[in-house]
Description:
Layout: H1 6-20, H2 25-44, H3 86-94
Amino acid sequence: MFGLGPVELILILVIVVMLFGVGKMPELFGAVGKGVREFRKNAEDPAPPAQPVQPVQTAQPVPPAQPVQPPTNSNNTPLVQPFLPTFLLQSFYSIG
Length: 96
């Protein structure tokens, strides 16, 4: 059983008692027992799938994206001006 002998099992039990205390041991082992019971029940009698598996549909190819033009006003100038970090440009050009 995973190479665990009686000495290792006793050591593990002592560590568990130190961590959880004697009062929590029945609750802890009860939860472990319920988990093992549920695992065995599901391993012996697996539930059938709810719906049959549908074949995978292949996706249609996506047309290439068209370039986006910025909105313009009646003078054909862009409504949104690009942001220029002037404080960075000034500090860059002031370095001599």
